[in-house]
Structure formats: structure tokens, C-alpha cells
Specification:
The strands form two sheets. A seven-stranded mixed β-sheet has the order 5-4-3-6-7-9-8, with helices on both faces. A two-stranded antiparallel sheet has the order 1-2. It has about 290 residues and is α/β, with parallel strands linked by helices. The protein has 13 helices and nine strands. The chain folds into two domains: about 60 residues; about 200 residues, Rossmann fold (3-Layer(aba) Sandwich).
């Protein structure tokens, strides 16, 4: 190759290729921004579209587009995912943060923020650390504890803590809320986005999710409620009196998850909260 195409030409080819493979063409822009090391909101990105790529840049871009064409998530290709306006490192050992989980953070900040000034917050199954680190950065007076059973995930979360400037977050290895119960420690706020996809449904997921994202972060057992049962059993022993718990759920699981916690905490207020698309997405428990 003696000369690489201009940016807009490479984008057109990549967009057509991705569409032919049943993928969204906007991924072509995301990958190009990574090659050029520019954010999409950066006005320089649009100015660069008339410029010619270097041969090295074009080969890098082609490789990234081909990887996505084979089904690999864009976030794993670039190694980053945007969450709450920040760039989090991600890889195949952690779930790609979703927009719904940003809504979960908003609900925690809104509802718990009215009750607490310096709460102790536990993020159960932290993965990349998206929830824990965002809460720590948005609520500097909070004490944030982040739990995960995966050593690989904990490494990613710790790196994100260093990069984003949230060194005070304490990372604890363990299964769900078990470390809190074992230490007889209670927290003011518990947040969790546990695996909630039923095993049968996991097998039917789009390949871009099923074949690349970690199954242990998605598969919630036969009916998808395995980890909610575990949390419901532990919550009376780990949530402080008057504390709050915030859970992300599958859109058809609201009544079932709410009932689990009502049975374990009969005096608590348990509410199902909808997301921006008016689907049941969160359960909020006030003890």
C-alpha cells in the first residue's frame, strides 16, 4: 500500500462493511476516534475527516473494523468504555457498563443523597468498578467498598481507580455480600447489578454478548434469580438500620425480586422503579 485513504473514505468503507454484517455503522466512528486519539465531541475530529490517514493508521483501523465485524464488542477492541462521562478500562474479564446502570447511579445519588452526608456504600460485584468509582467521585465524603469474586475484575477496577483518581475506594475479594456478613459489618447503602439473565436466555443472547462478555457476570442461574436470593438472605445482616439497597434487575423480574426482599425484610419499603424506557429496571429497598 503506497497511500492510505482519507478519513471520510475509510469511514464510508467501514460503515458499509459493518452494515453488511448486521452491525451498527456508528461503530466505524468510534473506532476511528480511537485511531486518531480524539473524542467524538472534539471539533478536531470533524476537521480531520478530509485528511489522509497514514498507512499505519489505516492498517490499524482495518484490523479493528474486521474484529468488530467478527462480533467482538467495540469496547473490548478499544479497551475503554464510557460511563457517566468517564473512560473506564474494560476487557473480556469484565462486563461492558450499560446505560441502564448509569440510571442506577443517578437513583442512588438522588435518593440516598437526601438521607446521608457520609455514608458507607457497598458495591456488590463491582466488575470494572463503574458503579463504585462513579459514586466515590460524585460523592467524595462517602466511604465506598467494592466487592468481587473475580481476581481479574479486581485488577481492572483497581487500575480504573488509579487512572480516574479514586484511590480511597477499598476493594475486597469475596462472593457477593458474604465478606460483610462474615465480618458482621453493616453499610448504609448497598448497590448491586448482579447477573440476572436466566441460563436458557443466556444461550440465546446475541453472539456479540454471549461469546465475548464474561458469562459469570451475566448468567443468573435457571430462573435468573440466584444472586438475588443470596442477597436477600444476607441483606438483613449487612444493611444498617434505616439503610437503603439499590438493585438493577431484568425488565420482567420486578415482582419476583421485590417479593424475595419483602419476605426477608417484612418491615422494609420495597419499590420497583422503571428506567428511562419505562421498563421495570430497579428495586429500591428502604429498611
Amino acid at each position: 500500500m503506497t497511500e492510505a485513504p482519507r478519513v471520510f473514505e475509510a469511514l464510508q468503507r467501514a460503515s458499509s462493511f459493518l452494515q453488511e454484517n448486521g452491525l451498527e455503522k456508528k461503530a466505524a466512528d468510534t473506532l476511528m476516534q480511537e485511531v486518531l486519539q480524539l473524542e467524538g465531541s472534539d471539533p478536531r475530529y470533524h476537521l480531520h475527516k478530509q485528511e489522509r490517514l497514514t498507512v499505519k493508521q489505516y492498517r490499524q483501523y482495518q484490523e479493528m473494523v474486521e474484529r468488530h465485524g467478527r462480533g467482538e464488542p467495540v469496547q473490548y477492541i478499544t479497551g475503554v468504555s464510557s460511563f457517566y462521562g468517564r473512560r473506564f478500562k474494560v476487557n473480556e474479564t469484565v462486563l461492558v457498563p450499560r446505560q441502564e446502570t448509569e440510571e442506577l447511579v443517578e437513583i442512588v445519588l438522588e435518593k440516598a443523597g437526601k438521607l446521608y452526608t457520609q455514608p458507607t456504600i457497598a458495591d456488590i460485584g463491582t466488575g470494572s468498578g463503574a458503579i463504585a468509582l462513579t459514586l466515590a467521585l460524585e460523592w467524595p465524603k462517602a466511604e465506598v467498598l467494592a466487592f468481587d469474586i473475580s481476581d481479574d475484575a479486581m485488577r481492572v477496577a483497581r487500575e480504573n481507580a488509579r487512572t480516574l483518581g479514586a484511590p480511597a475506594v477499598k476493594f475486597i475479594h469475596g462472593n457477593m455480600a458474604s465478606p460483610l456478613r462474615e465480618q458482621a459489618r453493616r453499610v448504609d447503602v448497598l448497590v448491586a447489578n448482579p447477573p440476572y439473565i436466566a441460563t436458557r436466555d443466556w444461550r440465546g443472547l446475541d453472539a456479540i454478548v454471549r461469546d465475548y462478555e464474561p458469562r459469570q457476570a451475566l448468567d443468573g442461574g435457571g430462573d435468573g434469580l440466584f444472586y438475588y436470593r443470596q442477597l436477600a438472605e444476607d441483606l438483613p445482616y449487612v444493611l444498617a438500620e434505616g439503610g437503603m439497597a439499590f438493585l438493577e434487575i431484568g425488565d420482567l423480574q420486578g415482582p419476583s425480586v421485590a417479593l424475595l426482599f419483602e419476605q426477608q425484610l417484612p418491615a422494609a419499603d420495597v419499590d420497583i422503579v422503571q428506567d428511562i424506557n419505562r421498563k421495570d429496571r430497579f428495586v429500591v429497598i428502604e429498611s
